[in-house]
Amino acid sequence: MEHITKTLVSWASILEDTTRAQAETTATMPFIHPHVALMPDAHLGLGATVGSVIPTRGAIMPAAVGVDIGCGMIAVRTTHDVADLPADRRALREAIERAVPLSAGAANQAVTREHTEARLVELRALAAEAGFDPASYAARWELQLGTLGSGNHFIEVTVDETGTAWLFLHSGSRGVGMLTGLSRRVVAL
Fold first, then answer.
1. Is residue 11 part of a domain?
2. C-alpha closest to that of 152 among 75, 66, 35, 51
3. Deepest of 5, 67, 69, 101, by most Cβ within 10 A of its Cβ?
4. Does pTM top 0.90 for this prediction?
5. Residue with the larger pLDDT of the pair 159 and 109
6. How far apart, in whole angstroms, are the C-alpha atoms of residue 39 and residue 51?
7. Element (H, E) at 102
8. Residue ending a domain, choose from 43, 68, 93
9. Which of 14-18, 38-42, 154-158, 177-181 ranks highest by mean pLDDT?
10. Same domain for 33 and 77?
11. CA-CA distance, 29 to 42, in Å (whole number)?
């Protein structure tokens, strides 16, 4: 951890100059409390640094939410330990890459899993009830379920200090933040 300023702390081992400058500007806001914290995935954002925690007192910063709103992050402890993992983890990584489409615009070829189809039935019903057509915003939304996204999104198999294996996931928002930002601009007009 590095204390960059009194109101800016960084856990990023690699920090680009533009990202640092953006975070330093945000950290000067008078309502930042107690400090802006840059996470290991910190990178330049639209309005605020992506991969940062920006606590405020007496203020709300919509730009601080940015386009990552709706991203998922979870760490799940498995029943396995480091001895259960193969010495060469390439096969494990490749199996994950085959099972989970990733990168910009990636999607499943088809919906083939029962649990995914069941979730789609539920989501279609909720959308119809709300009078909303998800396809008007993202034509391939159904095929994006179960994909990773791009940018700073990742799947990781990691081991903690006790040797327990964990699955760690940061999945994409599918543009929810972009739509939220668009709606804020429309409301402002």
1. yes
2. 51
3. 67
4. no
5. 159
6. 5
7. none
8. 68
9. 14-18
10. no
11. 19
- C-alpha distances in Å from residue 118, one per residue of 8, 115, 136: 45, 5, 21
Residues 76, 127, single domain; the answer is: yes
Q: Which two tokens stand for residue 66?
A: 């940015």
**Contacting residues for 123 by C-beta, under 8 A, at least 6 apart:** 134
Peptide bond into 34 cis (omega under 30): yes
Q: Which of 8, 65, 68 is nearest to 37 (CA)?
A: 8
DSSP secondary structure letters along 70-90: T-EEEEEEEEEEGGGS-SSTH
Residue 15, in any domain of the structure: yes
Long-range contact set of residues 82-85: C-beta below 8 Å, sequence gap at least 24: 82/159, 82/163, 82/164, 82/165, 83/163, 84/165, 85/157, 85/159, 85/165
Please check the confidence at residue 162 and state whether its pLDDT lies above 80.
Answer: yes
Q: Say how far apart CA 59 and CA 27 lie, in whole Å.
A: 14
Say if 185 falls within a structural domain.
no
The rounded distance, in Å, linking the Cα atoms of 10 and 30 is: 19
Residue 44 tokens read as 């330049």
Going by the DSSP 8-state scheme, the letter that residue 5 receives in this structure is E
pLDDT of residue 183: 37
Q: How many Cβ atoms sit within 10 Å of the Cβ of residue 42?
A: 25
83 near 167, Cβ under 8 Å?
no
